[in-house]
Specification:
It is built from 26 helices and 15 strands. By secondary structure, the chain is of the alpha/beta class. The strands form 4 sheets. It has a 5-stranded parallel β-sheet, with helices on both faces. The protein has a 4-stranded antiparallel β-sheet with strand order 1-2-4-3. Helix 8 packs across helix 24, helix 9 crosses helix 10 and helix 9 packs across helix 13. The longest helix has 26 residues. It is globular and about 100 Å long.
């Protein structure tokens, strides 16, 4: 066993039971062939699994059906022969084994073994449901990566929630994960950003020159913009002269949101009118660079509020910076492709990548005839840089970028990294309020900032809702529904289950909320449960159902990592909360007035309750949502 496997070794009693059932069946088959009950034949490939219907046992196998051709007997006869030669299960995890239907062999766990998952969860702590599946492979996930020329909107927010949750899942599955934000800070959009701030700055100075304070000038521009947005048919242009002048000065190619006015006001406050008389390009350059830093800091803060922090913030500009040897990362990447024979120039002098050699529908230009680099040139250098740092790259893109995938796959293959790059595409988010669509226009700058949404709705409810559907599905995000604090709201339902469990454990331990906060819930649970408990006492069907649901998590984590599908964890959390409520309705946990309860049974049930608490918290935390101890 490697050091990595030792670090992530996580005993799962359900997997151990599956392995034991397979071993018992293998031994039975060999014994049956040895005494002639079955003819000598190669052991067939067979399935041992946890059935969906508990009527079919805790574990079921199709070995009899799988071996019908090899052993030349009816499956029912094979199953009977195997059962007759099955080693003793007296000291195993099983209480009984039966043949069912046409020849299925069903295993039933004894109570102590079925409930052992409660002990495993409590003893494993945060290491429960960790896996060595990833074997320490270094994976980079790049997501959000919005231009630093404006605030994040809800679409970016979906990527923040999904990307960070995927990273958490991959880490729990044993991958070494790096979260990266690619800063698109090179290109014409940066100049447009600078000119937009510059024009609003001059308009503010104009109003201040008319005797208004800076705050009053800001209010005039914002009211003017609001009138412009409302005047869709441009029937009352006199109501929005400043916005019309702004658009005319910039040829309609501008960033129009209120935040541009706010940035301009910050420069008025810090610089006064010192930039009024300078050259436009000089003023634009100053505002562009300082405004860019302000927006980037704002983006960092918004991501942090959404419980999403990045390991690397990678600047596109850095790809064009010349090193001591006089070349940039872009130069070196293109030189590498040229060395490999994948570049050519057309008659006009443009430089192209032979993307069609890798199945793309056409070759892709890297440097235009005027010497300008394309966005693709940056992406070539950027992805080559990624593979100098990690083993596998996952990019999260909007569905509208689907046509861009093949060219990036092609260049990764050309550079020697086939099958090490993948893209997860995501659909849009429809923002509603009480069922009515919230109207937004990027052109008019009327997007709802993600930061504002977090303030109104809260990070937990926002993240849960944005993760709750597959990335392939559109999300209807209804602000009022997501804010609702009742059981119709899934995140409230799950968090309430966790808070209810904490309340039960506090009562059993005899501590109040404040004392529990000082002790920590793990210590509260230890006092409530005690140091010893007998899980064999848990024989109610609701207890068994809760144990089965908890035992699903290790396998679910691996499937979420393999399929890049963290949304499944929200479904699991809701199912587990429902199983807990059913258990609590069916099984008395602590004695009450006029309701005595055997002390040993109470401790065993409290252990089950505590295990459920831990798994609910672990599941919520993996998708970046908190697990409150009281609500």
């Amino acid at each position: 066993m490697t050091d990595f496997e030792k670090t992530y070794q996580n005993y799962n009693p359900r997997q151990a039971a599956l392995d034991e059932a397979r071993a018992l069946l293998t031994a039975a088959a060999k014994a049956a062939m040895a005494d002639g009950a079955l003819p000598e034949a190669e052991l067939p490939a067979f399935i041992v699994e946890i059935p969906a219907d508990t009527k079919n046992g805790d574990i079921a196998s199709n070995i009899a059906m799988a071996g019908a051709r090899s052993w030349r007997k009816a499956p029912k006869m094979i199953a009977d022969a195997l059962l007759a030669h099955l080693p003793s299960i007296e000291n195993s995890v099983f209480a009984k084994v039966e043949v069912a239907g046409p020849g299925f062999i069903n295993f039933y766990l004894n109570a102590a073994s079925a409930n052992d998952i409660f002990r495993v969860v409590r003893e494993s702590g945060d290491d429960f449901a960790r896996s060595a599946m990833g074997a320490g492979k270094k994976v980079q996930v790049e997501f959000v990566s919005a231009n630093p020329v404006g605030p994040l909107h809800i679409g970016h927010g979906r990527w923040a929630a999904l990307g960070d949750s995927l990273c958490n899942v991959l880490e729990r599955a044993g991958y070494d994960v790096e979260r990266e934000y690619y800063i698109n800070d090179h290109g014409s959009q940066m100049d447009v950003f600078g000119h937009s701030i510059s024009k609003r700055y001059l308009q503010l100075l104009e109003l201040i020159g008319q005797g208004k304070s800076c705050d009053e000038a800001v209010a005039v521009l914002l009211a003017d913009r609001e009138a412009y947005v409302a005047d869709e048919s441009d029937e009352v242009p006199e109501s929005h002269p400043f916005t019309d002048a702004f658009n005319e000065a910039l040829g309609g190619n501008a960033y129009a949101g209120d935040y541009i006015v706010d940035l301009a006001a910050r420069f008025v406050a810090s610089d006064g009118d010192s930039f009024a008389g300078v050259d436009e390009d000089e003023r634009c350059a100053s505002f562009r660079e300082r405004g860019y830093k302000m927006m980037l800091e704002s983006i960092r803060e918004t991501c942090h509020k959404a419980h999403c922090d990045f390991d690397v913030w990678f600047s596109e500009r850095s790809l064009y910076e010349k090193g001591p040897e006089g070349t940039s990362a872009v130069d070196r990447a293109l030189a590498k492709l040229d060395e490999l024979g994948y570049l050519f120039r057309d008659e006009a002098g443009a430089l192209w990548f032979r993307s069609t050699e890798f199945g793309d529908d056409k070759d892709r230009v890297l440097i235009k005839t005027n010497g300008e680099y394309t966005y693709f040139a940056s992406d070539v250098a950027y992805h080559w840089n990624k593979f100098q740092r990690v083993d596998h790259v996952i990019d999260l893109w909007g569905a509208d970028h689907h046509g861009y995938i093949k060219r990036i796959q092609s260049v990764c293959e050309a550079l020697g990294y086939p099958d090490q790059f993948e893209v997860v595409l995501g659909q849009l988010v429809n923002l509603l309020r009480d069922g009515t669509p919230v109207r937004m226009s990027k052109r008019k700058g009327t997007m709802v900032a993600f930061d504002e949404l977090l303030e109104e709705v809260g990070a937990d409810a926002t993240r849960y809702t944005l993760v709750a559907k597959s990335n392939n599905q559109m999300i209807d995000f209804d602000i009022e529904a997501v804010k609702r604090q009742d059981n119709t709201n899934p995140v409230y339902y799950v968090q309430y289950a966790h808070a209810r469990i904490c309340s039960i454990l506090r009562r059993a331990a005899g501590v109040d909320v404040d004392k529990a906060a000082d002790l920590g819930m793990d210590e509260v649970a230890r006092r409530a449960v005690g140091d010893t408990y007998d899980l064999g006492l848990l024989t109610d069907p609701a207890e068994a159902a809760l144990a089965r649901k908890i035992a699903e998590l290790p396998g679910l984590i691996e499937s979420c990592a393999r399929d890049r599908a963290p949304f499944r964890l929200t479904h699991y959390a809701e199912d587990l909360a429902a199983h807990f409520h059913s258990f609590y309705a069916a099984c008395q946990v602590i004695p009450g007035s006029g309701r005595p309860l055997d002390e040993d049974l109470s401790h065993a049930r409290l252990a089950a309750v505590d295990a459920c608490r831990r798994v609910l918290a672990l599941t919520l935390n993996t998708i970046g949502v908190s697990a409150p101890q009281s609500m």
